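task queued by scheduler; priority normal; single chain, no ligands, no partner chains; default sampling; output format set to structure tokens
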Amino acid sequence: MKKLLLISLVTVFLISACSVAKYNETSVMKADYGILRLVGNAEGRTVSVDGNVLSLDPKKQVNNIELKTGTYTLEIKRDGKVELAQRLFISNGQANEVKLP
């Protein structure tokens, strides 16, 4: 009985490990792109990159924006006042995390 239970557990682990590998194979980022990850409550905020206003989902705690590799100016405003202004470099295949003030 214990042997059957052990075999069942090993089988479940092997199957779940295969599904994780399959998931990772399909989630490949485009070449020359990285991610700007905005973390926090976006409600009431205007976020722009190089002057272009981003469309964020205020219901999400994390908004991921795919950007071509390069240097950008990020600006976050609330009620017309600048809360954060900074330059950032988006690296190929990397995620840059910025916490919303």
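post-processing summary
- The longest strand covers residues 81-90.
- Strands lie at 33-39, 45-49, 52-53, 62-68, 70-78, 81-90, 95-99.
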